[in-house]
Amino acid sequence: MLDSCVDIAPRPGAVPRADVFERPDDVLALIDLPGMHADDLSLTLEGGRLVIRGRVTTLRMEEYELVSAEYGVADYACTLVLPDDVDSDRIEANLQNGVLRLVMPRKPAGPSRRIEVARG
Amino acid sequence: MPERTRGQTEWFRHSRRGLERLQEEAQNLLGELGVRGFRARPFPPMNVWIGDEAVIVTAEVPGVEPASLDVSVTESTLTLRGERPAPQTGPGDVCTQRERDTGPFERSIDLPCPVEVAKVEARCVNGVLTLALPRAESDRPHRIQVRRAGGPQET
Question: Which of A30, B63, B83, B146 is the most exposed place for a label (fewest CB within 10 A)?
């Protein structure tokens, strides 16, 4: 089976760098998406996960020769597993200067409930 | 291959890999401690292209306000200076993931050929800086007419 695998050049890094902070009232995520325009970004909730996908465009460099490259340009895709207590209806997303800022408020803890124990 | 030579090659390969791993771990550790200059990946990452008329440099600078970017060019060097604000955290905040470089940065690169400093164009959109640096006129490639030797004399 391995003999039929073909080596291909992997596409340059498509998983964006992210910082995640768990705060008392919400979860804050800052995700680097350089080159991303808000129109090309898609955020969808699938189960308890936030799926982030985006297409980027880059310059055509046909008349130019590459001297050195430290980064590759590729479409982005990443998934954030949301903590159980995040209120998915109130997630706020903001894209500025290529950084996606997500604020995910937590659901307030419900009042404690006494559970009756049946006899027998 | 004689047994002894192969053993040495194996050892060399293992020790090199071990050394590289040690270097990588040391870099990661120093990076985590916030020691600048030791990160494996310099900020901002840059790509350089060259054409007949210009050098193009692109840099990924997400989170940097374009107005706060300091771009300075000499005939042969490009320097980028700026700051990436760190996320503001308060007491009770727990950081579960930290991958983005933040803080002040300064980076200089050598340009592949001389450029006309006065004609540099810069644009920064969606966290990507693009610079067009026109090549110095004397440095641009020029087509050289090749005359046929032994042809009819010109009057």
Answer: B146
Q: Does B86 touch chain A (CB under 8 A)?
A: no
Chain B interface, mutation test: which of A15, A67, A68, most B Cβ atoms within 10 Å? A67
In sequence order, the 6+-apart residues with CB closer than 8 A to the CB of B40 are: B24, B27, B28, B31
User: Any idea where the domains of chain A sit in the sequence?
Assistant: 13-58+74-105
**B127–A33 CB contact, under 8 Å:** yes
Tens of pLDDT, residues A17-55: 999 999 999 999 999 999 999 999 999 998 889 999 888
Q: Which domains does chain B have, with CATH numbers?
A: 1-40 (no CATH), 41-87+99-141 (2.60.40.790)
Chain-chain contact of B112 with A70 (C-beta, under 8 angstroms): no
Q: B3 to chain A nearest CA, in Å?
A: 31
**CA-to-CA dists, residue A100 to A47, A89, B61, B103, angstroms:** 21, 18, 13, 18
Chain B residues whose beta carbon lies within 8 Å of the beta carbon of residue A19: 87, 95, 97-100
Note the ipTM here: 0.79
Q: Hey, what CATH class is A13-58+74-105 in?
A: mainly beta
Helix%, strand%, coil% for chain A, nearest 5? 10, 40, 50
